[in-house]
Amino acid sequence: MRKVKRCALFREKYNSGMNIPIKKLKNGFSLPEFGLGTWQMGGREEADSKNDEKDIAGIRAAIEAGITHIDTAESYAEGHAEELVGEAIQGMNRKKLFITSKVSGWNQEHEKVLQSCKTSLKHLQTDYLDLYLLHQFPPDYPLQHAVRALDKLMDDGLVKHIGVSNFGVEHLKEAQSYTKHRIVCNQVHYNLQVREIEQKGLLKYCQKNDVLLVAYRPVGKGKLLEDVPKIIEELCVKYQKTPAQIAINWLISQKDVVTLAKTSDPAHLKENLGAIGWYLTEGDVELLRKEYPDQMFVSDVTPLG
Length: 305
Prior knowledge:
The protein is of the alpha/beta class. It is 36% helix and 16% strand. The chain has a domain of 213 residues: NADP-dependent oxidoreductase domain (TIM Barrel, Alpha-Beta Barrel). The protein has an 8-stranded parallel barrel, surrounded by 5 helices. The protein has a two-stranded antiparallel ribbon with strand order 1-11. Strands 2-3 form a two-stranded antiparallel ribbon. The longest helix has 15 residues. The radius of gyration is 19 Å and the shape is globular.
């Protein structure tokens, strides 16, 4: 294997304001195939404002380029990532945006879920969330309490859709048994290398049971672009795409799978959008599923709970 730099194989132009294809479940829930993540915008576990201007500009640039799904969480930079999203979307048509946030596992007691949602709405400067997720299986509280809180948020009109993140099949089924509303998605760590959701049957379960999978870290924070295997190089030539575009497209070429990635870099945004609007053949999707080297069957970030 040899080193392949980002965008080294092919460069493409994209039209500002492109229409990103939508994936729609049988139950009516839909999401764009590609969205913007905000993890590490505004800091990591703690708030850090030194890059605020760049991050706000990055969010606005993504929206102007056609991205409508913006994903964040109360734990990202202690809520500062939400504040940056709120600042970035001021003056924009809120109805054209799809904003997701997540309540942390340590706040998943019933009343804490309700308060966390209200705090997130304040940070985001909006009166509703399009999607609200349990960020992980709650370690300290009964899952039933957290799910019933999600129901109440929907009943009160503060949240339009509910879901979970990093849930394995067993706990996803449990959550589904408690809610009167439909759990429409599960956000998980999934890419060419990290295959836990395949190994543990979650991918097939969600595809069979009308739950959308939202894959984060599609290029492993750049890790998948460092030593590019021959199988990816060959597909880059075949499709006239970059390694990052092949990695992202492998996800969205699958049934009921969408993805999101964080970037404040205009060049990376441009490259990411070059992964949209075309699809790998089914044969190439399966080839990568079977032959991509050094696969991991447990997430090194957040294993399924």
